[in-house]
Amino acid sequence: MAKYLFPAVFDPGTDGSEGFTVTFPDLPGCITEGVDMDEAIHMAKDALEGFLYGMEEDGEEIPAPSHPNNIHLAKGCFLVFIEAWTDYIRDEFENKAVKKTLTIPKWLNDAAENEGINFSQLLQFALKNRLGIRRDH
Question: Which residues form the signal peptide (predicted)?
Fold first, then answer.
């Protein structure tokens, strides 16, 4: 499994509003926010997994996470290590249902409906069979 652990900088800001901006020093452009700590951690995990998944898909090299002692923090900021599993994201994307529109003769539609045929299931089975795919998902 592709498991990562990266330091995230949580910045509460200085304008007096609640919430946090979250950045990853090793991954420029990976940024998110949350209205409270729970949401900020959830959003950080989601952003990190999506960002790393995109890097993997693009064939980019994933940098090594920085050591906490090497990260400079502005006043009020703090570090939280965020865990990401890109295999879960990959599986989610690969198994995401995609809506397809197709056309069949009315008489064939009527006969299939009378037999209670699940069109999506049958099409998936037929496509896997035609393509020689031997897996359930």
Answer: none
Per-residue pLDDT tens over the stretch 84-116: 999 888 888 777 778 888 899 999 999 999 999
Q: What 3-state class would DSSP assign to 8? A: strand
Count CB neighbours of 16 within 10 A.
Answer: 6
Q: How many angstroms separate the CA atoms of 136 and 119, rounded?
A: 17
Domains of the chain: 3-94 (3.30.160.250), 98-132 (no CATH)
What is the H or E stretch that residue 85 is in? Answer: strand 78-85
DSSP code at position 95: T
pLDDT at position 136, please? Answer: 64
In this prediction the pTM is 0.69
Contact 96, 102 (CB under 8 A): no
Q: Judge whether 25 and 9 are in contact, CB under 8 Å.
A: yes
Contacts of 119 (CB under 8 A, 6+ apart): 112
Residue 3 phi/psi, 5-degree rounding, is -115, 135
The total of other beta-carbon atoms located within 10 Å of residue 74's CB is: 8
